[in-house]
């Protein structure tokens, strides 16, 4: 996943980021415990000699992957909002980030990280907890201002985590004769209907949703499926 912080990086850090981005889909699918350094170089599409110019060890590579996730999570900002339109815009941003995080951070990766690198695991989980706290405050403000229904936001988090992982299963999609694009759009509509009060939905704007869904579909399909 790319982050907005890339623009401030040195050429060395920029190259490190590009190599890590190439590796993340493999780590998501297979984990990292069994990966050898020569295999990692292969997935990065560079020689071992080139890889070692940027990473001294496997631990440094995994640390880089975790830091990439943490940076992406930390990009989330939630300020106090006043209008239905501003809540609607922020909701779409949160939805996109939630889908990509659930898609790229797999249970396999987390399980191995917890065992092999507990400090990195704690760092990632703390970032995810801070994100949930920010979003909970966003939901609470929306409820207090009469824009959102009185829903349990923890159930929304659970839906985003569990259902998105199911959606990425090609067997699930084929069994139900659905495309990833279709299921993401339907899931977006489902969450929005649960969250926004009916009278507020009428003044929301979904004009850019198709474009966002197309972007996520292409990215996930290219990287993960």
UniProtKB/TrEMBL annotation:
Residues 13-73 form the HTH tetR-type domain. The keyword DNA-binding applies. InterPro entries: Homeodomain-like_sf (IPR009057), HTH_TetR (IPR001647). Pfam families: TetR_N. GO terms for molecular function: DNA binding. Residues 36-55 bind DNA. Keywords: DNA-binding. It comes from the Bacteria. The keyword Transmembrane does not apply. This is TetR/AcrR family transcriptional regulator. It comes from Priestia megaterium (Bacillus megaterium).
């Amino acid at each position: 996943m790319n982050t907005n912080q890339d623009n401030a990086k040195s050429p060395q850090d920029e190259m490190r980021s590009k190599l890590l981005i190439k590796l993340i889909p493999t780590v998501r699918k297979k984990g990292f415990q069994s990966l050898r350094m020569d295999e990692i170089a292969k997935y990065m599409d560079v020689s071992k000699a080139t890889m070692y110019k940027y990473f001294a060890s496997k631990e440094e590579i995994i640390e880089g992957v975790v830091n990439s996730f943490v940076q992406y999570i930390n990009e989330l900002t939630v300020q106090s909002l006043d209008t239905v339109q501003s809540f609607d815009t922020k909701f779409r941003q949160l939805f996109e980030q939630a889908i990509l995080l659930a898609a790229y951070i797999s249970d396999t990766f987390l399980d191995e990280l917890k065992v092999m690198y507990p400090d990195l695991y704690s760092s990632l989980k703390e970032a995810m907890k801070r994100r949930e706290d920010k979003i909970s405050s966003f939901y609470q403000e929306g409820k207090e201002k009469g824009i959102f229904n009185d829903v349990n936001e923890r159930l929304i988090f659970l839906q985003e985590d569990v259902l998105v992982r199911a959606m990425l299963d090609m067997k699930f999609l084929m069994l139900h004769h659905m495309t990833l694009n279709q299921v993401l759009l339907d899931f977006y509509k489902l969450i929005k209907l649960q969250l926004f009060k009916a009278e507020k939905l009428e003044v929301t704007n979904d004009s850019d949703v198709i474009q966002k869904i197309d972007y996520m579909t292409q990215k996930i399909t290219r990287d993960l499926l």
